[in-house]
Design a protein that fits this description.
By secondary structure, this protein is mainly alpha-helical. About 45% of the residues lie in helices and about 5% in strands. Strands 1-2 form a two-stranded antiparallel sheet. A hairpin with a 4-residue loop joins strand 1 and strand 2. The radius of gyration is 15 Å and the shape is globular. The model has no long low-confidence stretch (mean pLDDT about 90).
């Protein structure tokens, strides 16, 4: 769930082989301008098959017999407390990172 929520987030490196997510504050600041340039494109916030396989399998099912379907993504609070920077500090405690994290979560 963390991976699908953080795909395309500045400063994040996803290592599928080791099932790890890394965050580097200096990379965050380097990648932030590029992230803002792409922020108007809805594709930046899509859930890709690479990191959201189960979600896409779910969408392929015939759900027509259900009157409604409820979905939920991880909260930005949980996400921000679980993912830490290179000093093991949760990213939610960085003011600038928190603001971008909340925006990304809303758009996802």
């Amino acid at each position: 769930m963390y991976v699908q929520a953080l795909e395309n987030f500045p400063g994040v490196r996803i290592d599928p082989d080791h099932q790890k997510i890394y965050f580097d504050l200096s990379h965050f600041y380097e990648e932030l301008p590029s992230f803002f340039e792409k922020a108007e494109d809805p594709q930046t916030f899509r859930l890709t098959k690479e990191f959201s396989l189960v979600y896409h399998q779910f969408l392929e099912r015939d759900l027509s017999h259900y009157p409604a379907i409820r979905g939920q993504m991880i909260s930005p609070i949980s996400l921000g407390l679980k993912i830490v920077d290179e000093n093991q500090k949760p990213i939610i405690y960085h003011d600038e990172v928190r603001e971008v994290l909340f925006d990304l979560s809303k758009r996802k």
